Amino acid sequence: MLASKKSRIAAGVLAAGALVALSACSSGGGAFSSDKASSSSDTITVGSAAFGESEILMQIYGQALAANGVEVSYKPSIGQRDVYLKALQDGSIDLIPEYSGNLLQFYDKNSTATSSSDVYSGLSKALPKGYEVLDQSEAQDADSYNVTKEFSEKWGVKSLDDLKKVTDPLTVGGNPEFGTRPYGIPGLKSAYGVTATLKPISDSGGPLTVAALKNGDVQLADIYTTTPAIKDNGFVSLKDPKSLIAAQNIVPLINTSKASSTVKDVLNKVSKELTTDDLIVMNGDNQGASKTQPDAVAKKWLQDHPIKK
């Protein structure tokens, strides 16, 4: 996910180190020797990464499980991927909402899978022993290239392929990593034949990036697909016909020893109900002056989507 929330939760050297440690502990049984890991399979500690959407999903998972007889505790805002996977490894948490494409790239940095089905298949094979992903949701939160409505209409641009029509220089606003990521500046050139330069903006598609696009400081901006600002400002998210950006479906990542039939059934039903539009609405509720806390946002979603095993 371009510099995700979630790469946004990037790998790199820390990721490689975490992978070695996680794999070693998993194969040797050390990751499951703690008291928490050896307790009843129907007690779950759910964690989240350090951003609002992940906390909302943590609450949805936890509240749905609790409503179906599972004892639940929470560890929100743990940190980035390398940090919360270590927490999964040492038994501090048992379950966390994840993003399929970024998680696959964490474990298999040579993967070329981009479609939802190919990413999910690759992920199921790449995870270390002792961990698994349950059913993925149709809901996604991926990086996306966005332009203003005016720019789209002026140049007739609705997809990344259409950018070849633009004769003016192109600048993209995005996190610094976007300059080297395969789905960033290099990918635009290799997949679509489009040359662009990066204006580094370190807020993961947040207010500074949005302002740069609105003000014309950049012509394109990397903004995550569930960000309410896309709709609020009438931005046009460009289609990606060559699947430059890998699918980022929401998926529960769980310690296999905790994946009881009840837990699987409940979480799979959550995944079946969750949509990208739901994420956009919930993220909107979790922002601004009238911000609703993640637990309340999750409670409302579950009232509208009751989950029964």
For the termini, the CA-CA separation is 32 Å
Q: Which residues sit in consecutive blocks of at least 5 with pLDDT less than 50?
A: 1-39
Give the overall form: globular
Q: How many distinct beta strands?
A: 10
Order of helices and strands: HHEHEHEHHEEHEHEHEHEEHHH
Q: Roughly what percent helix?
A: 40-55%
Q: Could you report the average pLDDT, rounded to the nearest whole number?
A: 88
Q: What's the total helix number?
A: 13
For the largest sheet, list the strands in their spatial order: 7-6-8-5-9
Mind telling me the C-alpha Rg? 20 Å
β-strand amount: 5-15%
Helix vs. strand class: alpha/beta
Largest sheet: 5 strands, mixed
What is the topological layout?
Blueprint lengths: L12 H16 L6 H4 L4 E5 L4 H15 L4 E5 L5 H9 L5 E5 H8 L8 H11 L4 E3 L11 E3 L1 H7 L15 E4 L10 H8 L4 E4 L6 H9 L4 E3 L5 H5 L3 E2 L12 E6 L5 H13 L2 H10 L8 H11 L5
Parallel strand pairs: 1-2, 6-7, 6-8
Antiparallel strand pairs: 3-10, 4-10, 5-8, 5-9
Can you walk through the features of this model?
- The protein has helices spanning 13-28, 35-38, 52-66, 81-89, 100-107, 116-126, 149-155, 185-192, 207-215, 228-232, 261-273, 276-285, 294-304, and strands spanning 43-47, 71-75, 95-99, 131-133, 145-147, 171-174, 197-200, 220-222, 236-237, 250-255.
- The protein is built from 13 helices and 10 strands.
- With 309 residues, the chain is of the alpha/beta class.
- 41% of the residues lie in helices and 13% in strands.
- Helix 1 (13-28) runs parallel beside helix 4 (81-89), helix 3 crosses helix 11 and helix 3 crosses helix 13.
- The strands form 3 sheets. A 5-stranded mixed sheet has the order 7-6-8-5-9. Strands 3-10-4 form a 3-stranded antiparallel sheet.
